[in-house]
Design a protein that fits this description.
Order of helices and strands: HEEHEHHHHEHHHHHHHHEEEEHHEEEE
CATH class: Mainly Alpha
CATH superfamily: Cytochrome P450
Strand order of the largest sheet: 1-2-8-5-3
Number of helices: 16
């Protein structure tokens, strides 16, 4: 198929210095459902960059399926699809059953009992970091805090948190030469073709998860691992080894990456917008709502992919059954038709129907309430302190068109 645009969002160089906002603007204006070429063996995809089109795709699971392919750009054969299938790669009854297995643990009411714990972990991370004249904000705050919360939810030893971070970095960074064991594009990755992200780190995560499962099976624990191994989904089909290992890996990745990168981006945005930082310092009651703007402006996940189940039309384009249809949340979060002056960082923006967790449809992020709580608690504490953070070098971004990630963010501490 001939490309319908002069750029392709498959080009990782576009993302080397963060989000290609100008490219998203161009696509929304001139070709909002655009055909993007890819290198072989991939066959290309439809890039959906306009907010309303993205919502249409997310809500219509009969036409745009998560079940018949990956949720990222990689193209899988049927064997790989079955081996890798997690809750994300499910639709319909089984997806609802797997989601509801842990959903009660992620409601605002259930999470409220963790707030005191969250505040203690936040205070500890900030105390240690801010005692220094300079430090890396990612390593010592943004990555440190959410992973400790995840460790508590999983019931794993605190000393294992660094290992959880490393596994996540190696898997999510599968297109970044600095982070990946083997780049997903490298022929050597074929040895790991059945693993999520084509990463050997997934094997280590599986082994770790199974050891936890074996220790907790038949017990009465209320941690997430115990709920997975001892609970039965509402469809009556217990989790088998594939279901457990893929669910556990999903928790390890999703429970850290989105919150971590949102916190990093937000600190950067607040430094760059001191008026907004001061507004929140003077009005801490506004932070809870400001979290929505933090999430919109950060857009920590660039895209998710669906696969067309039948011939259809979207945005004036004819889509064939089997085509990859990729929705670009980051682009939707800057749509001028939905957000007034979308490039203005406005912590009082209302309404703010961002799509950083998806927007409608059954696959909206399960952990969105936890992420909101973590981000709120972090900035309530950080902005109450008598210090300022300033840039102390350049920010390094993850080379990825999947995760809008920050690898390094050097800051220095000054008095207010």
């Amino acid at each position: 198929m001939a490309t319908t645009t002069s750029v392709t969002l498959a080009d990782l160089d576009l993302f080397a210095d963060g989000a290609p906002w100008a490219t998203f603007d161009e696509l929304r204006a001139s070709d909002p459902v655009s055909w993007n070429d890819e290198d072989a063996p991939n066959r290309g995809f439809w890039g959906v960059t306009r907010y309303q089109d993205i919502v249409e795709v997310l809500r219509d699971t009969e036409t745009y399926s998560s079940e018949i392919g990956a949720v990222n750009l990689e193209e899988l054969d049927q064997s790989q699809i079955e081996i890798r299938k997690s809750m994300l790669e499910r639709d319909g009854t089984r997806h609802r059953a797997l989601r509801k297995l842990l959903q009660p643990a992620f409601t605002p009411k259930s999470l409220a009992v963790y707030e005191a714990f969250l505040r203690g972990v936040t205070a500890n991370s900030l105390d240690l970091a801010l005692a220094k004249d300079q430090f890396d904000f990612v390593d010592e705050v943004a990555a440190d805090f959410p992973i400790r919360v995840l460790a508590r939810l999983l019931g794993v030893p605190e000393e294992d948190t660094d290992q959880l971070i490393e596994w996540g970095n190696r898997m999510v960074g599968n297109t970044d030469p600095e982070s990946a064991d083997v780049l997903a594009s490298d022929p050597d990755s074929e040895k790991y073709r059945d693993l999520p992200f084509r990463s050997p780190a997934a094997l280590e995560v599986f082994d770790y998860g199974f050891a936890l499962a074996n220790a907790r099976r038949g017990g009465d624990g209320d941690d997430l691992v115990s709920q997975l191994v001892n609970g039965t989904p509402i469809d009556g089909v217990p989790l088998d080894d594939r279901d457990f290992r893929n669910y556990f890996l999903l928790l390890v990745v999703a429970g850290n990456e989105t919150t971590r990168h949102t916190i990093s981006h937000t600190m950067n945005h607040l430094i760059n917008h001191p008026d907004q930082m001061e507004l929140l310092r003077q009005n801490p009651d506004k932070i809870e709502w400001a979290v929505e703007e933090f999430l919109r402006y950060a857009s920590p996940v660039y895209h998710f992919r669906r696969t067309a189940t039948k011939d259809t039309e979207l945005g004036g384009r004819s889509i064939k059954a089997g085509d990859k249809v990729v929705v670009w949340f980051a682009s939707g979060n800057r749509d001028f038709d939905v957000f007034e002056d979308p490039y203005r960082f406005d912590v009082e923006r209302r309404p703010n129907e961002h799509m950083s967790f998806g927007r409608g449809g059954p696959h909206m992020c399960l952990g969105n309430s936890l992420a909101r709580l973590e981000i709120r608690v972090m900035f309530e504490d950080l902005l109450s302190r008598d210090v300022d953070l300033q840039h102390n070098g350049s920010i390094d971004y993850l080379r990825s068109n999947f995760i809008h990630g920050i690898k390094r963010f050097p800051v220095k501490v000054t008095s207010r």
